[in-house]
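Final report, closing paragraph on structural work. Over the funding period we assembled a curated collection of sequence-structure pairs, and we close with a single example.
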Amino acid sequence: MSELFNEVDEEVRREQLKKLWDKYSIVFIALMVLVVAGIGGWRGYQYLEAKKAAEAGAAFEKAVELSEQDKHADAEKAFTELAATAPSGYRTLARLRAAAEAASRDPKAAAKMYDDIAADRSVGGEWQDLAKIRAAGLLLDSASYADMQQRLEPSAAPKSTFRHSAREMLALSAWRNNDLTAARKWLDAIDGDGETPPGLRSRAEALQALLPPVAKS
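Its predicted structure, as stored:
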């Protein structure tokens, strides 16, 4: 008798499953098609992105070769074109390299290119800070200390990635503009930072030696 009931239950379950399938089979098939299409689309996207990255890498290497051959105008053009078409990672690198190539012909134009990168939040904080440092380096001999202070003081803060370079340029700018108080401030910051690179520390000590002694009250 129990076997008969089991067979009946099994038959009822099969009938229920058949009804569910008849009712929802189209929906199920549609979902499966969407899943397969989604996976295929994602794979296709990954392939295209990998292809773009490989092409950008090859173009970047060719531009670097032009720079190494002292063909700076051609290298600048190649990096500029790459910056307009490459994936985001190569785009930022290409913009930085284009500015570096421009520096040999027009430092002020190159500084403007770096300033544009520094103002672009999409490139990321450290790239922005690097662009600020590069721009300031090009303008160090001509800009006022107030201008350099505005450009570099945030990057000179403790724990900032490029604080050592920022402090050195601020000290040099202050010294060049005859602001000895500001020069001592940044030289003291360099001296008091235990992570200051040895070479930079030596240059700071040499500059410190050029300053007149502090007047005693």
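Residues 34 and 132 are 48 Å apart (CA to CA). The chain has a mean pLDDT of 83. We thank the funder for supporting this effort.
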